[in-house]
Amino acid sequence: MQVTNEKIPVKVYAAIIATGLMSFCGVIVETSMNIAFPTLMRDFNVSTNVVQWITSIYLLAVSIIVPISAALKSSYETKSLFLVANILFFLGLVIDALAPAFGVLLLGRVIQGIGTGIALPLMFNIILEQVPQSKVGTMMGVGNMITGIAPALGPTFGGFVLQTLSWRWVFWLLIPLIVFSFVLGLWGIEQKSEIRKVAIDKLSFLAIAIFFIGMIVGFSNLSTVSFMRIALPLIIGFASLGFLIWRSNKLAEPILNLKLFKDPNFAGHILGFFLIQIISLGNAFLLPNFIQVVNGNTALLAGIIVLPAGLAGAIMSPIGGRLLDNFGPRKPILIGASMMILESAIFALFPQLLNNIFIMIVYIIYMAGMGMALGDVMTDTLAGVDEKQTAQGNAILNTVQQFAGAVGTSITSAIVAFSQRQMNSKGPVATRQGTQHAYILLLILAIIIMVLFVKYIGKKTSDK
Is 322 a residue whose pLDDT tops 90? Predict the structure, then answer.
């Protein structure tokens, strides 16, 4: 039993900072490269729906690795996992900084994604295991703030680097942070939990990988209007999902406990959470691209314009948590969902008004609402799960979060690319039209989110 006034050891602080820096760098690269899409399209002579794979393939790699994170943590020492993840991320940065071709750039992003997928859960595991109970909430808040600030800084950092150096320096400049993280982790991470070898079912892991790959490839091909290039990957993906469900029901310790989805309350929460992530990554792709291609601005200015919204999202996250403590989950989540609907509706209905100042103001509305709601949705999701299944519920949330990001980027970029293909142009008019069509889809998804949350938020299984 830990004493409530016990201080947090210096090594624990070091371990939290070391693992947090890895997550921070992972998000910084992801959001910085969104700003660089128009530049990469020119440098490598690729289309909109191809360049988005810089983000999608990274999130895909994270999505495939995260489901096995609980088994990895149980089977191997935390420090060993961290060092492997850190070295992989470092290697991916070097490969991307030197990449002579687009395919090599994607390879580096895959390696980074594997590293992030291993490291992503470590920070919170360390907090929960090694921080005194009375200070867990504070340190969890610090951890969330680290990952919350990164999306706000990423576009501005990426824009500044593109304006003053080149996109390759996005990777070079992060190497000192990764080295610092490596040294801190090597010194500070200590093993507190017992090592217990957990077998990872290879067939389930393969099914998860095929499912995610099939879905992302299918969605990214939407702009081709080719039935086979869209339908075949989706069919393979859904077939793999069916096999995964069947296989999981046969195992005593499945990678993901998909039986949780039998509870409509849990399934409704997860679907709403999934759709929020699609909209968020859709915004992260559409707006910087619009500001550069349609409004004719630099990548640096695009980053500066979206920066206030990112900061608003980071600030509203702890406020949303406090509102949940005081009033329950329904009010902050439904208010946040309303703000998401408002932003999507304005961008869908009034594309002609999208000057830079207007984009900045309206995007602040979205990010503030998303920041207020997202953490509360996760909290309310896990509150409805049996305590023994909390780890599984958390694994599902983390997996869904990464996968939805890849889907959001793939779908919105495919819609923009379709309009560009129809008009035989990658210029402002075609991009404006494609962006409007993408926001019409995001508005529909935002309305579905509201319907789901009105029905399920704040209602546990016992309420039904």
Answer: no
